[in-house]
Amino acid sequence: MDDNALIFPNSLGKFLHATAISTRILTPAVEAAGIPKIGDGETEPRSFHTFRHCYARLMLEPPVSRPLQWVSNELGHSSTAITEQVYGHWGKQAKQDTAASVPAGAFPV
User: Fold this and answer.
1) Structure pTM?
2) Sign of the C-alpha dihedral, residues 65, 66, 67, 69?
3) C-alpha angle with apex 22: 27 to 61, nearest 5 degrees?
4) 48 vs 29: CA distance, rounded Å
């Protein structure tokens, strides 16, 4: 297997342009899934990176909580530092859920 091969080449085996990915693949998939083009409280339409970010956060946060190295490999990052810097912050609900899971009296006051 060629590690430098393109995962999603165009019909000529070259790089796909972002607009081609968005208009031919992402937009029809989003519409077919019934996902609104713009999320709640957002002003910009969802993009490929919106879904990538969502996937990364879902994999890193409870209840899934995959190891950082695994997520970094899945995303194709050269180091876990990149993954942690970009995706390592937790959402508000994940913070609340994790805090609520700590048993009462676990830490003396």
Assistant:
1) 0.65
2) negative
3) 80
4) 11
Residue 30: other Cβ atoms inside 10 A: 17
Q: Are 91 and 61 in contact, with CB atoms under 8 Å apart?
A: yes
| Shared domain check, 54 and 18 | no
**Total domain count, the chain:** 2
Give the pLDDT confidence of 1-11 residue by residue, as tens digits. 676 788 778 88
- Please determine, for residue 109, whether its predicted confidence score (pLDDT) is greater than 80: no
Q: 36 is written with which tokens?
A: 């609104």
Residue length of the chain: 109
3-state secondary structure of 55: helix
Half-sphere exposure of 79 (CA within 13 A, CB side): 3
| 46, 39 Cβ separation under 8 angstroms | yes
Amino acid of residue 43: T
H or E element in which residue 28 lies: helix 27-33
Q: Is residue 108 part of a domain?
A: no
